[in-house]
């Protein structure tokens, strides 16, 4: 990832105007604005290219932030700029890892698999460095969570050995995603851009850095993501990781009886993964935990009449198969089943597998709930309540 340190020093010289400021909606999204006129002689920064994962980490980091890390975006900046938002973290080479580690801890305590996956994905994102082709420094401390410790950040694709190194990052990330019950092929979403020209001083580059992108990151909406591995390589790596485990009780993969299909979407010449699926098997969530989560949601929800948006009903274009009725922050969006190669859809996005579609629906509901909780529009509701609802929603899908 490319970034001129001097530029960020100028950008952060006036703290009141350059530090991340919360935008009106949603309240948990922060942004850093850097004048484009200052981007000469290098590629543009890209710390907002994968904002969907920063958003998830931001929500979970806020649950318990003892080091007072100001925002996840600082972990992706060069050290000089990162110091502004590092809080109590003094080893700036490890701010990225520390942010991911705390968010993972919080999400794990809340039973939020999606939040854990977001933290792992964030840990694998490329950091800004001083020039095209310069690799970032690897943290020399050990993370508290072994899942985070197993994942390193992507490196500038123009740096020495980046192709092999970034592929290894994705395969290691995939194994950790699988170990928590998430979709291992989503590891491809942590990838970076095509290599830049080491001799290019125009600033054109191959990157993007758009805030509030509708697809959760301009690397996705602009089709700039370069896959570091194939789905087959990821499946093989996950299978090898699972077979090598000595813990017969570890829930590292979905149950053998589960039928799992991984979804890819093709746009132009590149293939990227847009599905955000979580596989929650009987080994991952016991009936007791599911019942407790549902009871927690029921106790904090406002009773609503059964809606066609949350029950299996016939529609003009298909049948809604989302049956979860939890309504904190609003009902989950409908999952419409129709016909064709991608028979399931959620808010216009299509999926091959029903599990992927149901998980997306639960995730969308969780984001809306978390935003409402952060903004204060859901009185008496916390982000952890939203996480419990998402757990119950995914459990209903798994059942």
Characterise the protein shown here.
By secondary structure, the protein is mainly alpha-helical. The chain folds into 2 domains: 5-248, no CATH class; 287-398, no CATH class. 36% of the residues lie in helices and 5% in strands. It contains 13 helices and 8 strands. The protein has helices spanning 5-11, 15-18, 51-61, 79-82, 95-109, 113-123, 146-149, 162-179, 218-221, 231-243, 287-300, 354-375, 383-398; strands at residues 21-22, 30-31, 265-267, 270-272, 319-320, 336-337, 344-346, 349-351. The strands form 3 sheets. Strands 5-6-7-8 form a 4-stranded antiparallel sheet, covered by helices on one side. A two-stranded antiparallel ribbon has the order 1-2. The chain has a two-stranded antiparallel sheet with strand order 3-4. Strand 3 and strand 4 form a beta hairpin. The model is unreliable at 3-44, 245-291 and 300-316 (pLDDT under 50).
Features:
13 helices, Appressorial_penetr-assoc, disordered N terminus, Cell wall mannoprotein, 5% strand, 36% helix, signal
Helix-residue proportion: 25-40%
Percent range for β-strand residues: 5-15%
Structural category is: mainly alpha
Which segments are poorly predicted (pLDDT under 50) over 5 or more consecutive residues? 3-44, 245-291, 300-316
Please, what is the average pLDDT? Answer: 73
Biggest sheet, spatial arrangement of strands: 5-6-7-8
Order of secondary-structure elements: HHEEHHHHHHHHEEHEEEEHH
Shape: globular
Organism: Hyphodiscus hymeniophilus
Keywords: Signal
Protein name: Cell wall mannoprotein
């Amino acid at each position: 990832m490319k970034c001129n340190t001097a530029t960020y020093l100028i950008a952060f010289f006036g703290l009141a105007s350059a530090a991340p400021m919360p935008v009106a909606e949603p309240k948990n999204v922060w942004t850093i604005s850097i004048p484009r006129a200052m981007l000469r002689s290098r590629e543009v920064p890209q710390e907002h290219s994968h904002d969907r994962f920063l958003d998830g980490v931001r929500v979970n980091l806020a649950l318990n932030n003892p080091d007072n890390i100001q925002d996840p975006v600082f972990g992706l900046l060069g050290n000089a700029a990162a110091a502004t938002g590092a809080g109590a973290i003094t080893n700036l080479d490890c701010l990225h890892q520390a942010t991911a580690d705390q968010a993972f801890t919080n999400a794990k305590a809340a039973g939020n698999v999606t939040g854990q996956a977001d933290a792992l994905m964030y840990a694998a994102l490329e950091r800004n460095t001083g020039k095209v082709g310069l690799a970032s420094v690897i943290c020399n401390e050990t993370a508290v969570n072994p899942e985070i410790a197993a994942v390193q950040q992507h490196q500038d694709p123009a740096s020495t050995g980046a192709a092999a190194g970034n592929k290894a990052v994705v395969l290691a990330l995939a194994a950790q995603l699988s170990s928590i019950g998430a979709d291992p092929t989503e590891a491809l979403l942590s990838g970076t851009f095509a290599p830049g020209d080491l001799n290019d001083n125009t600033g054109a580059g191959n990157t993007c850095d758009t805030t509030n992108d509708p697809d959760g990151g301009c690397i996705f909406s602009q089709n700039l993501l370069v896959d570091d591995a194939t789905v087959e390589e990821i499946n093989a790596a996950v299978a090898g990781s699972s077979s090598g485990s000595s813990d017969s009780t570890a829930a590292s993969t979905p149950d053998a009886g589960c039928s799992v299909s991984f979804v890819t979407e093709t746009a132009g010449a590149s293939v990227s993964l847009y599905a955000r699926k979580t596989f929650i098997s009987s080994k991952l969530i016991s009936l007791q935990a599911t019942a407790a989560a549902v009871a927690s949601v029921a106790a904090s929800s406002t009773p609503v009449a059964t809606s066609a948006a949350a029950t299996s009903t016939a529609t003009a274009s298909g049948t809604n198969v989302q049956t979860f009725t939890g309504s904190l922050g609003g009902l989950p969006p409908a999952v419409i089943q129709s016909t064709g190669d991608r028979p399931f859809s959620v808010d216009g996005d299509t999926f091959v597998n029903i599990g992927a579609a149901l998980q997306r629906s639960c995730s969308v509901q969780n984001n809306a709930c978390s935003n409402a909780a952060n903004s204060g529009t859901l009185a008496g509701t916390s982000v952890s309540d939203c996480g419990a609802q998402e757990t119950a929603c995914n459990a209903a899908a798994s059942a």
